[in-house]
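thought: fold this chain, then report.
action: predict
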Amino acid sequence: MRKLLLYILVFGAASTCCGLIYAHINNHTDTLDTSIILPADTLPHSDSITLPDTLVVIDTVRELTIACVGDMVLGINYPSNAQRLPIHDGSHLFNQVLPYLKNADFTAGNLECLLLDKGGKCRTVRDPKYAFFFRSPERYVHHFVNAGFDFLSIANNHLRDFGEEGVISTMRVLDQAGIAYAGLRERAEIAIVERDGIRYGICAFAPFIDMCDIYDFQHVTHNIQLLRQQHQCDLVIVTHHGGAEGVAATRVTRQDEFFGGGRRGNVYNFSHHCIDAGADLVFGHGPHVLRGMELYKGKLIAYSLGNFCTPYSVYIKGICGYAPILLVTLTSQGDFCGGKIVSARQIDRTGPKLDSTNIVVKEIQRLSQLDFPESPLIIHNDGTLQSSSVE
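observation:
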C-alpha cells in the first residue's frame, strides 16, 4: 500500500513538471532559433552534433614556412653559338638546396630572364656595357617545377629583352607549368595561390617600363588591399626588383637609388609602405648582392637576396656569388614567428652549393646591424631569425 502511494506521488510530480516545461516551450515558440536545425536528410549522428552554447572552437592558426630566393637565370640560348647552357641541361642546378625549396609551404623567387626558345626582337641598348640579354629555353621551366617553386616574379629589367614575343612566351610557359607570376602592369599584376587551405597573395614591383611601378605608391596600396580585402588572402607577400646594382650597392641608403642612368627606387620607403598597406612579408632581389634585413611593425623585410642561380652572364665572384635561401616562419594570420637563413654560394656554373662556414649569414648580420640598428630582428650565427620584442 505504501509503495502504491509513493508511485502515485512520483507520477503526479513528473506530470506537473512536464506540463510546466511544455508550457514554457509553447510560450517561447516565437523566439525559437531554428538556424541550428538541420534537414533530416543531412542530419549526422547525434554524437557528432555540438550545440552553439557548448561549441568547442578549434584553433586553426598554424605556422607556415615561406622560402624566398633571389635572381635566377638557369641558362642562356642567345646568341645560339655562345655555349651558355649548363651541363646535363641544367637538371642538377638545384640539387644541393632542393630540400629547402621543396619542403617549404610556399616557395618564391625572381625569374631574371624570359622563356623563349628562339626569335623575338632584341631590345636596343645605348651603352654596350649594359648589353645583357637573358633568353632562356622554355623547357627550363621544368627545373623550377621540380624544385617546388610556386611563384616567380617577372617584374624586372630582362623580361622584355626580346620584346613582346618574349613576354607572351614567358607567360604562356609559366601558365602551362602551373607556376604563378606577377609584376606586369595591367596584365599580370597580382597572383593568388592556394596550398593546403591557405590562400597566398603575391604582388611584384620594379622601376621599369610596363612593370608594376615601384614609385606608384597608390597602385602599390591598391594591389595589396586587393589581395587582402577582395580576394581574402591569408598571407600577402610583396617582392621587388629595385635598388642600385653591384658590389658597391650592399647598403640600404633610405634614399632614391640610381643605376645605369635610371632611377631604381627608394626601397626603404617602398618596403615600409607595403607593410603599412597590409603586407606580411617583403623581399627584394635587384642589386645582385646581399643587403640587410629588418623587422618593421613585426613584419620581416629582406632588402636583397642577391643572385641565387645565375651560372652564365652574371658576375658571381666574391659577394656576388652569395646565394641565401630565406626561410620565414609566419602564422596563417601573418604573424612573424622566426625563420632561418640558409647559407649557400655560387662558386661555379653548377648551381648554389651549401656553405658550412655560414659566410652568407655573417654578411647579412653585418649589413643588418649597420643599416637597421633599431630593428628588433636578431640574426644568430647559425642563421636563425628571432625577434627581440616582448609581446
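thought: worth noting. Residues 65-387 form a domain with the Purple Acid Phosphatase; chain A, domain 2 fold (CATH 3.60.21.10).
final: C-alpha cells above.
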